[in-house]
Design brief:
Elements: E1 3-13, E2 16-27, E3 31-35, H1 42-50, E4 59-64, E5 67-68, H2 74-79, E6 82-85, H3 97-101, H4 111-120, H5 125-128, H6 139-153, E7 157-161, H7 172-184, E8 188-192, H8 196-199, E9 204-209, E10 212-218, H9 219-235, H10 241-244
The chain binds adenosine-5'-triphosphate and magnesium ion.
């Protein structure tokens, strides 16, 4: 069985644990959800798995199919089939949607495939393939372009950091279809989300709290735990109405 494994990973920045004693297993072909309140460490975990600069573990190992990839560059991890959908999609200058999707012509895809994938993420090919991927695309449009690029890469592991954020609620089924597409093509999905409908697509979930895994297991149980127990915490630091009136 193929898997991605985090072995006692810690991420310390300054004098703070951003991630602490993380042990997690992601098996091929499954869907995993990562839940947790704002600031719990979900994106940091995604960056650490992907090998983003500044998110190298302070200790612990990341293993992919038995190989230690802890010190591999992001490019080498991408070559091994890891990919990340950023919570905030990056803006690019000087590339059309089509050039962006084909990595400037580096990946060979037919016209038909480009059209199919754009339609899949709800972007009309006629309107979008020649538009620039710059600040003029809306947040939701950029997120859709990013989702399209992930589908074209056929990833073995897709880490989707809040794929639903910025996407209108009518299009939630599009996100579900994207996740389904990746798994049907042999990939594993690790989806970070605050939305129950999306979390419910997963079989297993990890609940992060303050950088640690608070609990893990079958998604139904973890989603319930999250809904029942984490609400209080997410309000802990909010000022009371009285305080706000000062
Ligand atoms: N490079 C860094 N240096 C110092 N602190 C960091 C760094 N990256 C993240 N943090 C802190 O670690 C905590 C976790 O951040 P992270 O972005 O992983 O949270 P999150 O669970 O993705 O939250 P959200 O739901 O809001 O996206 C935050 O308090 C953040 O400020
Ligand atoms: Mg985040």
């Amino acid at each position: 069985m193929w898997l991605l494994l985090l072995d006692n990973v810690n991420l310390v920045r300054g004098n703070k644990y951003i991630l602490k004693d993380i042990n997690a297993v992601f098996e091929t072909g499954k869907i995993y959800a990562i839940l947790g309140t704002n600031g719990a460490g979900k994106s940091s975990l995604a960056y650490l798995i992907m090998g983003i600069n500044g998110y190298e573990p302070s200790s612990g190992r990341i293993l992919l199919d038995g190989e230690d990839i802890t010190n591999l560059s992001i490019t080498d991890r991408a070559k091994k089939g890891l990919t990340l959908l950023w919570q905030e999609p990056v803006r690019f200058q000087g590339l059309t949607v089509e050039q962006y999707l084909t990595l400037g012509g580096k990946i060979k895809v037919s016209n038909h495939q480009i059209e199919f994938i754009l339609n899949f993420v709800g972007l009309s090919p006629n309107l979008y393939r020649h538009r620039m991927v710059d600040g003029l695309l809306s947040g939701g449009e950029r997120k859709r372009v990013e989702l399209a690029s992930i589908l074209l890469l056929n990833p073995r592991y897709a880490i989707l950091d809040e794929p639903d954020s910025g996407i209108d609620i009518m299009s939630l089924s599009m996100i579900e279809n994207v996740i389904d597409y990746i798994v049907k093509h042999g990939g594993t999905v690790i989806v970070i989300t605050h939305r129950e409908e999306i979390a419910k697509l997963s079989q297993e979930a990890y609940l992060l709290c303050n950088g640690s895994i608070l609990t893990q297991g079958s998604s139904d149980r973890i989603i319930k735990y999250y809904k029942d127990r984490c609400d209080e915490c997410s309000h802990v630091n909010l000022p009371s109405l009285e305080e706000m009136r000062i």
